[in-house]
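I'd like us to work through together how a protein chain folds, taking it slowly. To get us started, please write out a protein record for me. Label the sequence line and the structure token line clearly, so we can match residues to local backbone shapes. Once you have written the record down, we can walk along the chain together.
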Amino acid sequence: MTIKTVLFDFSGTLLRIESAEEWLRGALAATGRVLPEARLVELAAALERVGAQPGGAPGAPVRFPDARTAELWPVRDESAAAHRAAYTGLSRHVPLPHDALHEELYARHMRPEGWRPYPDAHDVLAGLRARGIRVGVVSNVGWDIRPVFRAHGLDALVDAYTLSFEHGVQKPDARLFATACGVLGASGPETLMVGDSREADGGASALGCAVHFVEHLPVTARPAGLRPVLGLVDAAG
């Protein structure tokens, strides 16, 4: 069947968050604080190890600092409050020198300057638009990512966003994909889902969607990972 709609995941698919060191360095600058470089690198690595950076290295934390954070983790993307509490709970597992840094780190990850589009993201989205393909973004996330897309010149190439925290349901639940398809007037068999998580994004297959996976890598390490999407669309046509 012809592909008429392509759904994309957000983090690790179309854009990637800055490194943990950049993340911490930005939070320090925003709060007017300075750390010796060696200490900054050490703390950034610790934050990365505990999974405190939203959009960072994929996979669940090895352990949780408290029962509340462990309880929130499986449903963290179902509400803004759960998302904030889960990630700041992990961050507080690392003894940062100033308590205000925990909230600033969370705030920073929602700012456009903390994100980088993959090098081929714009061209692939533009290529789909030129082919008359409708494009949606389906993300497990606890905040509004639209400003990030606007700041990086991608918003005009996206027809609709389906964000887990706005619907109270998260991937791989087929209901989130069904909502995304419904907004775009698409059926599952004429839709391609593109994402970096076999567990989460693979849930689209329950609707009959084709699914294509990309690797969750830093932007410099994946210059053309999205380009096969255009070939898949053309081949299906």
Remarks:
- The radius of gyration is 18 Å.
